TrEMBL record:
Similarity field: Belongs to the adenylate kinase family. UMP-CMP kinase subfamily.
Record's keyword annotation contains ATP-binding: yes
Binding site for CMP: N151
Catalytic reactions of this protein: CMP + ATP = CDP + ADP; dCMP + ATP = dCDP + ADP; UMP + ATP = UDP + ADP
Residues annotated to bind ATP: G70, S71, G72, K73, G74, T75, R183, G226
Residues reported to bind a ribonucleoside 5'-phosphate: R96, R117, I118, V119, G144, F145, P146, R147, R187, R198
Species annotation: Zea mays
Gene giving rise to this polypeptide: LOC100283047
UniProt keyword annotations, A-Z: ATP-binding, Cytoplasm, Kinase, Nucleotide-binding, Nucleus, Pyrimidine biosynthesis, Transferase
Enzyme class: transferase
Record protein name field: UMP-CMP kinase
Cofactor(s), names only, from the UniProt record: Mg(2+)
Length: 244
């Protein structure tokens, strides 16, 4: 079984000491009173999952897709999904969907996104895990996650696997800012104040994740300047070379 069993989940420390300071102040993590509830809920989900498939589920091929805000992750993922048969799970879209649901969790997420900060790992990983379970795809793109080392560690612990590859879209800041200001999709974070914060968070917290996976030989860096079609040519070459 590729997913880690719930026993391991409950035995593991919530975060390593390096992870606890990695994302940001603990102030915005789950309130202490909410944590046992979150773990219990996860425990139930894992138990029922193990029962439903006899524990033989094949591990999907997972690609994390990283890059700065506006580097073109979503644009390229749409093309990869259509040409290479991947499910496209955008962490940002999943969080925005939770906001749209009107849940209490959604209110917290909205405040964090407006400030360009990172949503607590417990929330994001659980939403991604559920989306993966519902999708049950053999090839999955996880777009815009993990955002920080704590996210990465939480994913590997809770979902129980590492990505097979990590795609990193490398784009200059001025180009990213220009694209975001021109996106025009009504996103609450597409304004210059929040964009500046997102760029800082990207440099300080997301780049270390890229560095970590580089040290494990998993990162494929793509030059994200040029037209979307030009960039996709490099992406196509990469995906065509993979043993999927
Ligand atoms: N190569 C490109 N050249 C010019 N504009 C682009 C290019 N790729 C994407 N765009 C446009 O730039 C904007 C941002 O692209 P996209 O949403 O794909 O980025 P992203 O990395 O997913 O951003 P975010 O992290 O904010 O979700 C969109 O309006 C998109 O149409
Ligand atoms: O794993 C994640 C992904 C996203 N966020 C928050 O959402 C916004 C927007 O994300 P996009 O990927 O750019 O759509 C991001 O700035 C974060 O505030 C997150 O916390 N964790
Ligand atoms: Mg996006």
């Amino acid at each position: 079984m590729w997913r880690r069993r719930v026993g391991a989940l409950l035995r593991s420390p919530r975060t390593s000491s390096s992870a606890s300071s990695a994302c940001q102040s603990r102030r915005h993590h789950l309130l202490p009173s909410e944590e046992p509830l979150a773990l219990n809920r996860l425990a139930r989900l894992f138990t029922s999952q193990a029962g439903s498939d006899g524990g033989d589920t094949q591990k999907p091929f997972i690609a994390f897709v990283l890059g700065g805000p506006g580097s073109g992750k979503g644009t390229q993922c749409t093309k990869i999904a259509s040409d290479f048969g991947f499910a496209h799970l955008s962490a940002g879209d999943i969080l925005r969907h939770e906001i749209a649901s009107g849940s209490e969790k959604g209110e917290l997420i909205l405040e964090i996104i407006k400030e360009g900060r990172i949503v607590p790992s417990e929330i994001t990983v659980e939403l991604i895990r559920k989306a993966m379970e519902m999708n049950n795809a053999k090839r999955v793109l996880i777009d815009g996650f993990p955002r920080c080392e704590e996210n990465r560690i939480a994913f590997e612990r809770i979902v129980g696997t590492e990505p097979d590859i990590v795609i990193f879209f490398d784009c200059p800041e001025d180009e990213m800012v220009k694209r975001l200001l021109g996106r025009n999709q009504g996103r609450v974070d597409d304004n210059i104040e929040t964009i500046k914060k997102r760029l800082k968070v990207f440099e300080s917290l997301n780049i270390p994740v890229v560095d970590y996976y580089s040290s494990r030989g998993k990162v494929h860096k793509i030059n994200a300047t040029g037209t979307a079609d030009e960039i996709f040519e490099a992406v196509r070459r990469l995906f065509s070379s993979l043993r999927l």
